[in-house]
Amino acid sequence: MPDRKVALITGATGGIGRATSIAFAKTGQYDLALHYNTASQETRDALLSQIQSSSSSSDTVKAHFFQADMSSYDSVRKLHEDVTGVYGRVDVLFNNAGAVLGHQGVQSLADVPIDVFEQTWRVNTGSGILLTQLCLPEMEKQGWGRIIFDSSVAAFTGGFVGPHYASAKSAQHGFVHWLAGNVARKGVTVNAVAPALIKDTAMMGSMDGDGEDKGKEMEERLAGRLPVGRLGRPEEIAETVLWMVNTAYVTNKVITVDGGMYPY
């Protein structure tokens, strides 16, 4: 294998995706395939600049952006085709992209149409499973690979977003447990990280309501639910993802990074 591995990060321009991209760049050990859906050129350029300035390698880290709509399986297949067309393979897959589809703070099951459940599963879970199917054969062939899903503490507790989101995230866990056992002797680890409330993510941004003051009030109220008394930082999730990549003896795990919310 070449010394530098290839990491595909979906949802790379969001808070957790951005922090994880920079964390990988700092090691100098990875070239980066950065997925986005609707992020502006300005946003992508800013992330690319951060990546290049963060790299610890004298040989510039390669980083390319790839557009895909994660609600479309055809678009996901095209994403894999485009990434492997540039890099040849994917060594590390961080299935980070996710969405709540405009439904959060749900108070009644009747408020979420069944098609929203299906769409939420597709974006948060189904597309990650498809990408895993596409990337896994090369990982198995070379005897090394890392697959990580960005889940949520909502998969354990139900959370506050809604049943569509909690059920989609919990579906990731069953898949992680099955696949991890299936490939454990093939040099491929499969894990998930399950954050609680993370500052500066797209979901938190969409909760800001109609003003900055309201957003701060919401943030303080939510932080008060956590034993540590604050929201998490995207960098704390990124550090956990990097640890999972670096540690070959960790597989079949869902690690909560949640400020003490969930005790297991």
From TrEMBL:
Q: Which GO terms describe its molecular function?
A: oxidoreductase activity, acting on the CH-OH group of donors, NAD or NADP as acceptor; quinone binding
InterPro entries listed in its UniProt record: NAD(P)-bd_dom_sf (IPR036291), SDR_fam (IPR002347)
Q: Which UniProt keywords apply?
A: Oxidoreductase
For biological process, the GO terms are: fatty acid biosynthetic process
Similarity comment text for this entry: Belongs to the short-chain dehydrogenases/reductases (SDR) family.
What protein does this entry describe? NAD(P)-binding protein
Q: Tell me what organism the protein belongs to.
A: Oleoguttula mirabilis
